[in-house]
Design brief:
Blueprint: E1 4-5, E2 11-12, H1 18-42, H2 45-60, H3 68-84, H4 88-110, H5 117-135, H6 139-160
Length: about 170
């Protein structure tokens, strides 16, 4: 569903409606909470080192008005977290969901409302706490912290559209 074929046999990226975005975010909450929980139990020392490294890079990042570097770091962080679950089928499903909501993400970020320094600091704090919970193998906290992180980002993206309400 990430691409669609038009009647003229060309391929395009479909727009994601608000209703579809809401459903995708709900699915992310369910699945990525499980990813974080599994990561707390199954992660390797190498994966922990990679998570700490990218989390530190994100904390040192200073927003320059363009989302490219921030998005690259966020995607890397998320991919390491997903891989740390060591659950290939779950990882594949989560990555497919991310591909499906990518158009909504791109639309939100192209509106031009840059995240505030306060938002970036809070997000970095949540992600650091999540990594620390994973390191402690605290799967319950990891689950809740991932949900909080996702919900915070969802609200930010919805606010870009002038609509802060989330499902």
């Amino acid at each position: 569903s990430a691409l669609e074929i038009t009647p003229g046999r060309s391929v395009r990226v479909p727009k994601v409606s608000r209703e579809t975005a809401d459903e995708l975010w709900s699915m992310r909450l369910l699945l990525e909470a499980e990813v974080a929980s599994l990561a707390a139990v199954k992660r390797t020392p190498e994966q922990m080192a990679a998570l700490f490294d990218i989390t530190d890079k994100m904390a040192r990042f200073e927003w320059d008005g363009t989302p490219d570097v921030n998005i690259a770091h966020t995607l890397t962080w998320t991919r390491i977290l997903i891989d740390s679950s060591n659950a290939p089928m779950l990882a594949d499903t989560v990555l497919r969901l991310q591909l499906r909501y990518a158009p909504f993400l791109a639309d939100s970020l192209n509106i031009g409302k840059a995240p505030t320094e306060e938002f970036l600091k809070y997000t970095n704090y949540q992600q650091r706490e999540l990594v620390l919970a994973i390191e402690r193998q605290d799967y319950v906290s990891a689950r809740h912290l991932r949900c909080a992180d996702i919900r915070t980002y969802q609200r930010h993206l919805y606010s870009c559209h002038g609509n802060c309400k989330s499902s």
